[in-house]
From TrEMBL, chain A:
It comes from Kribbella sindirgiensis. Pfam families: ABC_tran (PF00005), oligo_HPY (PF08352). GO terms for biological process: peptide transport; transmembrane transport. It comes from the Bacteria. Residues 22-273 form the ABC transporter domain. InterPro entries: AAA+_ATPase, ABC_transp_ATP-bind, ABC_transporter-like_ATP-bd, ABC_transporter-like_CS, Oligopep_ABC_C, P-loop_NTPase. Keywords: ATP-binding, Nucleotide-binding, Transport. The keyword ATP-binding applies. This is Dipeptide ABC transporter ATP-binding protein. Belongs to the ABC transporter superfamily. GO terms for molecular function: ATP binding; ATP hydrolysis activity.
From TrEMBL, chain B:
This is ABC transporter ATP-binding protein. Keywords: ATP-binding, Cell membrane, Membrane, Nucleotide-binding, Transport. Gene3D superfamilies: P-loop containing nucleotide triphosphate hydrolases. InterPro entries: AAA+_ATPase, ABC_Ni/Peptide_Import, ABC_transporter-like_ATP-bd, ABC_transporter-like_CS, Oligopep_ABC_C, P-loop_NTPase. It is a peripheral membrane protein.
Length: 347, 356
């Protein structure tokens, strides 16, 4: 789909520059839209993810940010292979895992885990915490030296839960504690990559900070890489090393964190950043604001050319005719997909 | 917008009194597990044309107090006491029919979740006109004209066609706009917005907040904005009330709260949010522990079990004595804390401010 540049690979983040863990090339997920009941015929496709290139190195955090419906969650589900890509490739530590079957995928599942958004529906209410956190050991037939129970209790302690609550059920815990259970479960098999899908958006601010701190501590301790999906730009700025901004199934801009927040080039990124209200009344009064009009177009029938053109104040004829490729611009590793990129101070 | 039906405020009769005054409001719910003390003594005032922000975590009593102002606890098991004065009328003791005459006309509410707040079986237009027809003895055509006008005003494209749509045909942002239009149908003098933008994306949130500001200027309405997003508070409000465990722990001018906060809970809130305009590489200053149960509220200061600054208290016991909500300085800045004011100021400038 989009032109793949090797720039991202060659100039990838140096600071957290471990080995390349995960790489997606032209990743696609089209959901078919059908008509008829018995003789179904496909009448269209929702292009949820349409050509996404991402790469994550060991120990780094890639933040994926965008409005609802931009395909960030679907991307996370494709990477963990909870959903089947309709195009493109996913490679994990050098092996192609795009279409591996269940059995052959299993060893990779140890390395890629997921933390879900909703701490209420992502835990089985009929199982005890011990069973939930111990499930990865059972499924992968991993024998812990100290026994599963001991291993689970160590994990519980590590994420800040009381190990004595081993036999309790999820409903006995608060939202923040449940999210800690989710973290412990993801951590059980010492994965290399954890996909965090909005892990803090359902939590109160003070609890949110606790979980963000926990995730950062664990990253340092176990050299984890995170694919951190969120719509909250402040959280993304805090936790990420690199950030990718998505719009209607495509990455429109990607760069190192500070480069993106300070020197964004894509108008959509400008609009997003300027829309975040800052917790500072004086700064709020001074800030320049970009008012976007309208809603995100339907991914069933995205606009021709640049997908952002229908809401963009810079749109010209070329934007409707030609889709801008993701091009290297500015600092190394900074790519933007726009015909008229420019720097603008918005935060 | 021409045929505005705002009841001329009979403010002359009670000159000097604020437009909305909440005095010692308490809301308690008897349940099988015990008495849930959701709101324990809430006090604030609000003038027309101003916005008050109520900030707090879930379970701090912010939504429950707004429902009390709307009179929506009437007929439920909830025990509401205290006084709510709105433009000369007392709402707590008011009967249900009286309250019904007021609701929608004088006071209107924007709910958090527009999908569940609208009825899925009725057309958006019918839902908009309902309150107008109840309160005004006007023909349907007038109500429709006004509804279409307002839908247009809140930025819904082709409002005359959209008037006949059902809520599910609207996107999330459009539904929220329709909710705002619905709330504005009778030009309410007081608008309560309970987390109006929490379910929305940032770009849509910015549109809705700008819209609310513009409409406030136009109609000179008072707004109570309930939210946990401190960014929204900074952008929208003049005065802020910080609630914790059903009590006000700090209140004052928005700049006092953001630049000169004195209550450890407010410090914690400000420290726990990541900022979009700078890269903090350090850890977030989270508040340890979890909010208290409203059935077993701590005897003393509600924040005591989570507070890290108790060693600075002299001559009082945080665990057993509830600190008063005391005014500091000349402004309406009030703080509920046992630490003396000088010490709090010093703590804030030395320990808290550098890390914000």
């Amino acid at each position: 789909m989009s032109t793949t540049t090797s720039a991202e690979q060659a100039t990838g983040k140096q600071a957290a520059g471990g080995e390349l863990l995960l790489e997606t090339r032209g990743l696609q997920r089209y959901f078919p839209v059908t008509q008829g009941i018995i003789f179904q015929k496909q009448t269209g496709a929702v292009k949820a993810v349409d050509g996404v290139d991402l790469s994550i190195r060991a120990g780094e955090t890639l933040g994926v940010v965008g409005e609802s419906g931009c395909g960030k969650t679907t991307t996370g589900r494709l990477v963990t292979r909870l959903d089947e890509p309709t195009g493109g490739t996913i490679s994990f530590m050098g092996s192609d895992i795009t279409h591996l079957n269940r059995a052959r995928m299993r060893p990779f599942r140890r390395e890629i885990q997921m933390i879900f958004q909703d701490p209420f529906s992502s835990l089985n209410p009929r199982q005890t915490v011990g069973t939930i956190i111990g499930a990865p050991f059972d499924i992968q037939k991993v024998k812990s030296e100290t026994g599963t129970k001991k291993a689970v209790q160590t994990l519980m302690e590590r994420v800040g839960l009381n190990p004595e609550h081993y036999n309790r059920y999820p409903h006995e815990f608060s939202g923040g504690q449940r999210q800690r259970i989710g973290v412990a479960r993801a951590l059980a098999l010492r994965p290399k990559l954890i996909v965090c899908d909005e892990p803090v958006s359902a939590l109160d601010v003070s609890i949110q900070a606790q979980i963000v701190n926990l995730l950062e501590d664990l990253q340092e301790e176990f050299d984890l890489a995170y694919l951190f999906i969120a719509h909250d730009l402040s959280v993304i700025r805090h936790i990420s090393d690199r950030v990718a901004v998505m719009y209607l199934g495509k990455v429109v801009e990607t760069a190192d964190r500070d480069e993106l927040y300070n020197h964004a080039r894509h108008p959509y990124t400008h609009a997003l950043l300027s829309a975040v209200p800052e917790a500072d009344p004086d700064a709020e009064e001074r800030r320049e604001r970009i008012r976007l009009t309208g809603d995100v177009p339907s991914p069933l029938n995205p606009p021709s050319g640049c997908r952002f053109r229908t809401r963009c104040w810079k749109a010209q004829e070329i934007c409707a005719a030609e889709e801008p490729p993701l091009m290297q611009i500015g600092a190394p590793g900074h790519q933007a997909a726009c015909h008229f990129p420019e720097e603008r101070d918005v935060v | 917008m021409t045929e505005s039906v705002t009841s001329a405020p009979p403010a002359d009769t009670r000159a000097g009194k604020p437009f909305l005054e909440v005095k010692d409001l308490q809301v308690h719910f008897p349940t099988d597990d015990g008495l849930v003390k959701a709101v324990n003594g809430l006090n604030f005032t609000l003038e027309r044309g101003k916005t008050l922000g109520i900030v707090g975590e879930s379970g701090s009593g912010k939504s429950v107090s707004s429902l009390a102002i709307m009179g929506l606890h009437k007929g439920s098991k909830a025990k509401v006491s205290g006084e709510i004065w709105l433009d000369g009328a007392e709402l707590v003791s008011m009967s249900v029919p009286e309250m019904r005459a007021l609701r929608g006309q004088q006071v209107a509410m924007i709910f958090q979740d527009p999908l569940s707040a609208m009825h899925p079986f009725y057309r958006v237009g019918d839902q908009l006109t309902e309150a107008f027809l109840v309160h005004n003895n006007a023909p349907k055509a007038v109500a429709k004209k006004r509804a279409v006008e307002l839908l247009d005003r809140v930025g819904i494209p082709s409002p005359d066609k959209r008037f006949f749509d059902y809520p599910h045909q609207f996107s999330g942002g459009m539904r929220q706009r329709a909710m705002i239009a619905m709330a504005l149908m009778c030009d309410p003098a007081l608008l309560i917005a309970d987390e109006p933008t929490t379910a929305l994306d940032v770009t849509v949130q910015a549109q809705i907040l700008d819209l609310m500001k513009d409409l406030q200027k136009e109609f000179n309405s008072a707004i109570i904005l309930i939210t946990h997003d401190l960014g929204v508070v900074a952008k929208m409000t003049e005065n802020v009330v910080v609630m914790y465990g059903g009590r006000v722990v700090e209140s004052g001018n928005v700049r006092d709260i953001f630049y000169r906060p004195e209550m450890p809970y407010t410090w914690g809130l400000l420290g726990s949010i990541p900022r979009v305009n700078r890269s903090g590489d350090g850890r977030l200053k989270s508040i340890r522990g979890t909010p208290p149960s409203l059935i077993n509220l701590p005897k003393g200061c509600p924040f005591q079990p989570r507070c890290d600054y108790q060693e600075h208290v002299e001559g009082a016991n945080c665990a057993t004595e509830l600190p008063e909500l005391l005014q500091i300085g000349q402004e309406q800045h009030r703080v509920r804390c046992h630490i003396n004011s000088e010490q709090r100021k010093q703590l804030f400038t030395e320990q808290i401010k550098p890390s914000l």
